[in-house]
Amino acid sequence: MRRHFFAFSTFVLTGFFGQAQVVTDSIKTKAEPAASESENKLSISGYVEAYYNYGIGAPKAQMYQPYFYNFARQNEVSLNLAYAKLAYADDKIRGTLSLMTGNYAQYNLAAEASVFQNLYEGFVGFKLNKNVWIDAGVFSSHIGCESAIGKDNFNLTRSFIAENSPYYETGVKLTHDRGKKWLFTFLLLNGWQNMRETNTDKAAGWHIEFKPNSKLTLYSCSFAGNEKADTAKQYRLFHDFDLVYNASDKFSFMASFDYGMEQKAKGDTTAGDWNNWFGGCLEAKISPWKKVSIGLRAEQYNDKNGVIISKTTKNGFQTSGLSANVDVKPHSNVMWRTEIRYLNSLDDIFLNSKSNSTHINLTAVTSINISF
Q1: Cα(369)–Cα(101) distance, rounded to whole angstroms?
Q2: Using one digit for the tens of pLDDT, what is the confidence trace for 49-67?
Q3: What is the pLDDT of residue 14?
Q4: CATH number of domain containing 229
Q5: How far apart are CA 36 and CA 13, in angstroms?
Q6: Cα–Cα distance measured from residue 303 to residue 313, given in angstroms and rounded to the nearest whole number
Q7: Which residues, in sequence order, are bridge partners of residue 351?
Q8: How many CB atoms lie within 10 A of CB 235?
Q9: β-pair type (334-345, 360-371)
Q10: Which ranges of the chain does DSSP label H, i.e. alpha helix?
Q11: What is the spatial distance between Cα 221 and Cα 241, in angstroms, rounded to a whole number?
């Protein structure tokens, strides 16, 4: 285990510090930003997103496969996410309580106890010194650059790597803000996206942001822990790397890559005793006019051993996709989005209009969101 952890750590650190430069502030990571010295207020905010999803050539009543947790209903007008947020922040303490409903809560938190299934965030924090905060509770995940809040993402739908990595987590985190260029977060967690403990182990993680200049940001995010019962104890190691580049108000680009591995059985320590999965995506946002923007995405996800997505076919889940969306903002707090998404899998995992399995899936989704 030590040898694997050392090799894994070397890999992710080399990948992070060996990359070129920089990022943008238009993308919000899943991590909670530190409160600034100027904040001293109680605030109320909210977000509502409704949508209609049409599966082209698919059964009329079909619901998406379980690897999607957003926009999961087809051929009906539905609510993806609605939440209300109460937050307090000053220069010493901060706290947030967010309650939600919609398909995202219904499907993504299905395994949680009913008392938690409508909780988006709930945490408290205080400042240890000038640049260090400690927070505890349920908060947005430290992994990735796509969040559950649709308006903050390049695309209407979420990528495979976003849908199949944590959106939220429960535990304690220590955040060290080093100023304009560096932000470090270290976490002790209950596990991989769960509010209640599933075993007696704790997981660990980190989130590192590096901004070499005002246009480029690099993110290095890792997770290590046991995600099985105490009797099994199969350790999981995972790393996410993101690069976000904001060239101008009219063009932004993001590249993301995930790699994970998990022991096949308790006590396995050699290279052949680990299952792995990986995924990546390239995203771009083009804004030719003030109120209109275009989002593009190409992606690939490979989980042939069924670590994250249950294996139901010979080759497991090995799927690529292309997405294109047009966003219109008739008002500063309102966004209307329409997206076409094409998926192509190695095996026949989708259903067509005749209820036969096929390797191709094509959908059209339109949504409207409002924030306040």
Answers
A1: 14
A2: 999 999 888 777 667 667 7
A3: 39
A4: 2.40.160.10
A5: 29
A6: 11
A7: 357
A8: 21
A9: antiparallel
A10: 2-17, 103-108, 160-163
A11: 6
Q: Is there a contact between 144 and 161 (Cβ–Cβ < 8 Å)?
A: yes
Long-range contacts: 247-250, Cβ < 8 Å, 24+?
247/215, 249/287, 250/286, 250/287, 250/288
Asked whether residue 16 carries a pLDDT value surpassing 80, the answer given is no
Q: Is the pLDDT of residue 30 over 60?
A: no
Q: Of all residues in the chain, what percent carry a pLDDT higher than 70? A: 87
Confidence of residue 2 (pLDDT cuts 50, 70, 90): very low
- Paired with 225 in beta bridges are 236
What is the model's pLDDT at position 291? 95
Q: What is the DSSP string of 112-129?
A: S-GGGTTEEEEEEEEEEE
Task: Give the range of the structural domain holding residue 312, as residue numbers without chain letter.
Answer: 2-371
Q: Secondary structure of 226-287 in the HEC alphabet?
A: ECCCCCCCCEEEEEEEEEEEEEECCEEEEEEEEEEEEECCCCCCCHHHEEEEEEEEEEEEEE
pLDDT at 38: 46
User: Would you state the pLDDT for residue 15?
Assistant: 39
Which one, of 93, 85, 80, 82, lies nearest residue 34 by Cα? 93
Tell me the two tokens of residue 305.
């051993």
- Taking the mean position of all CA atoms in its chain, how far away is CA 36? 24
**Residue 60: Cβ-neighbour burial (10 angstroms; 0-12, 13-18, 19+):** exposed
Q: Which residues pair with 79 in a beta bridge?
A: 50
20 or 343: which carries more pLDDT confidence? 343
- Residue 179 confidence (pLDDT): 86
The identity of residue 53, as a single letter, is N
Instruction: Give the bridge partners for 336, in sequence order.
Output: 328, 368
Span between the terminal Cα atoms of the chain, in Å: 48
- The number of distinct structural domains making up the chain is 1
pLDDT, position 57: 81
Which residues, other chains included, contact 8 with Cβ-Cβ below 8 Å and sequence gap of 6+? 224, 237, 239, 261
Half-sphere CA count of 16, side-chain side, radius 13 A: 23
Residue 333 CB neighbour total at 10 angstroms = 12
